[in-house]
Write a structure and sequence with these properties.
Elements: H1 3-10, H2 26-60, H3 80-83, H4 88-97, E1 101-102, H5 120-126, H6 135-151, H7 153-158, E2 165-170, H8 177-187, E3 191-194, H9 201-204, H10 209-223, E4 227-231, H11 250-264, E5 274-280, H12 288-294, E6 297-300, H13 306-319, H14 330-336, H15 342-352, H16 355-359, H17 369-376, H18 386-396, H19 399-407
């Protein structure tokens, strides 16, 4: 339509007597814009209706079944029937009442006095058996393998071995095994459960006593971690030698139930801050096969070396309130006390440093002659038995077997057989 025709149709006959100022026609403007607006609204409404229809169709469809999570394996806990579904707090109360859960005298890892053995590499070359660990090495091993995972949940979860951690401390009496357990319990703020045969005689007399006790102990340890299950004189639980027929001792009755708990509860103690520490000063009387299979790590507490004996003596004297002059012959004392332990030093020093003698130190300094008699009268001289401890350590750590394999004669392919002469005497085949 041309402009003239449009004017003739819409505006020529239009009455504008009331529109003297010639303002725009509001109704005419709405008529022009309305079709475009209606078309856009129609499109939007159609899109919304299509979305609603899709949602209605989806609502009628059955939702896809979610895959069922795998059923957790039921872990059978040995002795569970003896607990009678009692809560862990009730079990803890009974163990405390019977002296199984106890608080030992506090100690620290720094109380384990000693430095690195600077002659270790030279001794290792000269001795067919492995060199004894130094006191500093023992502190480092205990800190990294036991104290850190026991005290920190994050470190425990990051370990390769996530199952129950078991350790064997062995060495002469007085070398610091029990003191190390006390230090771990104190510094890690751990619950200590003492299952030593001498401490649980009341439970061993009953038929189901050992089974009940171990269920109580391991349940309480897992519930109130960090926890240390401590067994002293473990050689009584795993005795060596030929099996004797007849009635077993109370400690031997504990063996079968303990093996069940240690072997059947690996999954039960995943990432748990619970450790089992056993100690013995008579490892030769134990069953080496059981000791090797039951415990993850075997830690030898040796007799103190020359430097450690000198440092030990000075440290113990100062802790008892005494004081040594710079001229005191510590070297001579360390040399003459070969075979003695820290416990031996402590007993001898306690005999000398009475309350009256400590008061007289300023006027009358301590002399070496005062300590010679008390030290000589002590029976704790392990020089004769020390070879047994070292042989046990050499064997249980697997180094003896590795050395034997290394020293075995190897086959010589040029000679066509084993040994020097081969299978046929070593002359080889005739041409």
């Amino acid at each position: 339509m041309c402009i003239r025709d449009r004017y003739m149709k819409e505006w020529e006959t239009k009455d504008e007597s009331d529109n003297f100022s010639q303002k725009f026609d509001y109704e005419y403007a709405k008529d022009i814009v309305r079709p475009d607006v209606e078309e856009e609204i129609k499109k939007n409404v159609d899109e919304m209706i299509n979305c609603e229809l899709k949602l209605m169709k989806k609502g009628k469809q059955k939702p896809a079944k979610k895959p069922k999570p795998p059923k957790a394996k039921k872990i059978k806990i040995p002795g569970q029937s003896t607990g009678g579904n009692r809560p862990p707090l009730d079990l803890l109360a009974e163990l405390v009442e019977n002296g199984v859960v106890k608080k030992l005298l506090p100690a620290r890892l720094s109380d384990f006095v000693g430095d690195f053995n600077l002659m270790g590499s030279a001794l290792e070359k000269a001795d067919p058996m492995m060199a004894d660990p130094s006191m500093a090495q023992l502190r480092q091993i205990v800190l990294e393998y036991i104290a850190a995972p026991l005290g920190s949940k994050n470190i425990r979860q990051s370990l390769d071995k996530k199952n129950l951690l078991t350790y064997l401390f062995f060495g002469p009496a007085g070398t610091g095994k029990t003191m190390m357990v006390r230090a771990l319990a104190h510094e890690c703020n751990a619950l200590l459960i003492d299952l030593s045969p001498q401490n649980i005689k009341g439970y061993l007399q009953d038929g189901k006593g050992p089974e009940k006790l171990l269920y109580f102990a391991f349940t309480v340890a897992r519930e109130f971690q960090p926890a240390i299950i401590y067994i002293d004189e473990i050689h009584e639980v795993f005795p060596g030698g030929k099996k004797k027929t007849g009635n077993k001792s109370g400690a031997q009755k504990l063996k079968n139930h303990l093996l069940k708990h240690l072997k059947n509860q690996k999954e039960y103690f995943l990432n748990e801050r619970v450790v089992v520490i056993a100690c013995t000063n008579q490892p030769a009387q134990s069953n080496k096969k059981d000791m090797k299979s039951v415990f993850n790590k075997h830690i030898f507490f040796p007799l103190p070396d020359y430097g450690t004996r000198a440092l030990l003596f000075k440290t113990i004297v100062e802790k008892q309130g005494g004081r040594l002059l710079d001229t005191f012959p510590l070297g001579a004392l360390a040399y003459m006390t070969i075979g003695y332990t820290a416990g031996s030093f402590k007993k001898a020093i306690e005999k000398v440093l009475s309350k009256r003698r400590i008061e007289q130190i300023k006027d009358r300094p301590l002399k070496i002659e005062e300590f010679v008699g008390p030290i000589a009268s002590l029976p704790e001289d392990y020089r004769d038995q020390y070879t047994e401890f070292r042989e046990f350590n050499f064997e249980i750590t697997g180094l003896k077997e590795k050395k034997q394999k290394r020293d075995e004669p190897q086959d010589d392919p040029k000679k066509g057989g084993k040994g020097k002469g081969g299978a046929k005497g070593g002359k080889g085949a005739k041409k």
